[in-house]
Amino acid sequence: MNEKTAFAERLAASMRAAGYEPRPAVLEREFNLRYWGKPVTLQGVRRWLCGETLPQQEKLQVLAEWLGVEPQELRYGQGSRQRVNEPRGAWDASISAEERRVLQRYLALPVEQRKVVAQVIEAFAHADKAGSGEEGGKR
């Protein structure tokens, strides 16, 4: 069995385990609700489920988070227990209590509302760069 076929089987099994029918229409809808980039097409997710292609890393991470599995397990299978141990939240010490509350509230929002908030922040950041006269945002 090749790696694409094995991935497709793990993806379908993970969808079933999470309570979803492993069909392209279901995968397309649920994935695009959670992914902030350009939406994936029905044909694109069908290729994942048929073992024709593999998702890019950022898409694999979204799939894994949605399905409640580790990204490396979804991509490589159960035998891939070598993990990169990156400390989570190392930046927590550098933010204020108010910023922490805002982040917690943001993370508690539904995905669609988080997308809107992210778009607003991006618009402010873009306006700030344009207002400073430098695209790099340096002042």
Chain-wise SSE layout:
Layout: H1 3-17, H2 24-34, H3 42-50, H4 57-67, H5 71-76, H6 97-108, H7 111-132
Helix pairs in contact: 2-3
Descriptive report:
This protein is elongated. By secondary structure, it is mainly α. The protein has helices at about 5-15, 25-35, 40-50, 55-65, 70-75, 95-110, 110-130. The chain folds into 2 domains: about 5-75, lambda repressor-like DNA-binding domains (434 Repressor (Amino-terminal Domain), Orthogonal Bundle); about 95-130. It has 7 helices and no strands. This is Transcriptional regulator.
Mean pLDDT over the full residue set: 84
Number of separate helices: 7
Q: Please give the oligomerization state of what you see.
A: single chain
Q: Order of SSEs, N→C?
A: HHHHHHH
Domain HTH cro/C1-type: 40-74
GO molecular function: DNA binding
Protein name: Transcriptional regulator
Please sum up the structure shown.
The protein is mainly α.
